[in-house]
Amino acid sequence: MIQSSEPPVALALRKLTKxxxxxxxxxxxxxxxxxxxxxxxxxxxxxxxxxxxxxxxLLKPDAGTITINGIDALADPVAAKQxxxxxxxxxxxxxxxxxFEYLEFVAGLWRIDAGEAQARAxxxxxxxxxxxxxxxxxxxxxxxxxQKVALAGALVHDPKLIILDxxxxxxxxxxxxxxxxxxxxxVAAGGTVIMTTHILDVAARMADRIGIIASGRxxxxxxxxxxxxxxxxxxxxxxxTFLTLVAEQVAHPVAAE
Amino acid sequence: xxxxxxxxxxxxxxxxxxxMTAGRRRRGRxxxxxxxxxxxxxxxFAYWIVAxxxxxxxxxxxxxxxxxxxxxxxxxxxxxxxxxxxxTRAFYARSDLDLILSSPISARKVFAVRMSxxxxxxxxxxxxxxxxxxxxxxxxxxxxxFAAYGVVxxxxxxxxxxxxxxxxxxxxxxxxxxxxxxxxxxAAVIGAAFVIGLQVAAIFSSGSIxxxxxLQSDWILTHAPGPGSAFWWPAHAVLGxxxxxxxxxxxxxxxxxxxxxxxxxxxxxxxxxxxxxxSAVVRQRRWSSGFRRRSQARVLRQKEWALLRRDPWLxxxxxMQILYLLPPALLLWITFRNGTDAFAVLxxxxxxxxxxxxxxxxxxxxxxxxxxxxxxxxxxxxxxILWAKIEAVIGMIALVFAPIVAVLALEQFFAAFVAACGIxxxxxxxxxxxxxxxxxxxxxxxxxxxxSSRIATFAEAFSSIxxxxxxxxxxxGTWFAVFPALIALGILAGVRLIxxxxxx
Lengths: 257, 504
Prior knowledge:
The complex is a heterodimer of chains A (257) and B (504). With 257 residues, chain A is an alpha/beta fold. Chain A contains 9 helices and 10 strands. Chain B is mainly alpha-helical. Chain A binds chain B through residues 56-60, 78-79, 81-82, 84-86, 88, 92-98, 100-101, 103-111, 113-115, 117-118, 121, 135-137, 139-140, 150, 153, and chain B through 278-284, 286, 290-296, 298-300, 303, 306-307, 310-311, 370-381, 504.
């Protein structure tokens, strides 16, 4: 019997579709493996955020399937949510709660053992440099601090799949590095991270694989080298590769697939 | 200055339009029809209230002047409350202020135009609110009543001047950091104080809850200035005296102009101070030092309660409705003291207040979720989330109204039972309406919640009124209570039918 060396699938999307006035996500197929850092890039309005919002249960797809760690997320959303974390580009936290209370709230919602959650919360607050502010209300926090509180909330329940939409937007260099370090730690510990970003350098440096999405379709994916090969320019940057692939998709929408 | 005034007018118009249509452009025709129907309804209502007075040969004696002036002051206090909100918002809303203040135009001019716009809006609101009553009086009693329009417009100017003075005073006394919150609370208190004050005075003087009973009391009539006093000019103007009208208009315009001229030098300074305000660091003391083991529903309920408890502005806004309970509570106390039966008055007031309070709390809990993505991506069913939030609302209603019901039970158990049922029904009805019309908003948008759905606002009010009527009739032991209860249930069924489907 031959054993597959393929890592387990953390996220599988099949024919995922969402239409508004026009298709926002168009029969999208995507597979992300466990322990992988996957970056989803694409021009504005390409369907990145819509795709991820469907994965975490914030939007209902018109068609298709979503499987998270073997769980059908549409049939059993509660089980899928138990192992998933979502962080949007606009950190939504409660101004009148402290980071400590916010994490306690999240741990309660995810039904994490209080002692275990508290230890993890203190560790996360320390990692993210929020320790001295743990008992201050969030109302006076800068955007970077708020983003870090939201990130701590996303990690406090130890999710297997972390989905982040533009997590570095508006962060200063120091905060961005802290966030990137925390995400790398998660991947090193076996977690899966899927992140959308407009900062192509970040995608190139952090991701194991990069998916390029345009007009709701995945037009290319692979490592940076694999993407370069697709464009035939082995030494080009991700930015050049990205622009070439997107331009091809716009010029020849069917041929580019 | 002219282009700036034009810009302000355009913004004001669009703001009003957005307020009326809740931001949906296609609603224009519906809103027009609704406004016409509302105007017709208000004229009918005004006819019922004031038609009897129009033909009477109204003599400007002290009793009449006190009555008219009291009515004007009542409206004035409500307008002042609104104007204070607008003036404060002009300093703190950052929408275009950063752009304007960084441009080479004097802040003095910008704010002078902006304050004039607020005055214009106050005048329009005052005129629109008074129009049905003035129209009916003029129709029945002659064109002299049209003079009241002048007085109402003058009131708009005076409230803006007063609001401006009060806000600037607050800036100087408490600084930019605290002015916004205090101004909002002062505005809300001013709005309620006069109404409640008159009711309290009426209860003490005559045992009645009527505001006009206090105004016509012997004490007021004997201590009021004589009919020739300048204090009565606005009342004389309302009654058709052209010289008094001219004096009122000239004085109010001069007052507004003087206040803008006097305070405008400081406008830019205060606006910059307001822009530099950041939230103070608040360290939160905790009852326990560690995470507590709680169910998901409990976590959600306690989050709702903590957020409300820690937000003085929201408390002031929601509890303002409770302030209106003060007069009936006082009446209850006097009733116990005198041994007379006033439950027929008390129970519907309490039930009505419960419905209104529950509506506000339900909006905060269900629509005003500041972290909707977090809650929606948690491993808990939407149904359970909704129930937890409903429990949070009912818990808060129970906390506020249980003492009143308990005191009532000491006097008459059946009345207390009816009141409790009425409170529960009104609160449940208002909560159901908020569930049907739930939307995603920030808690800071609480004051604008009534504009997100006019249907929800009216349904909430009519449902509370119907449950109040049911309770009043049930407390007096008549089976007629079934009819308003059926109306209330009909309203709720109608709301469920026409409520928009949740978008996803």
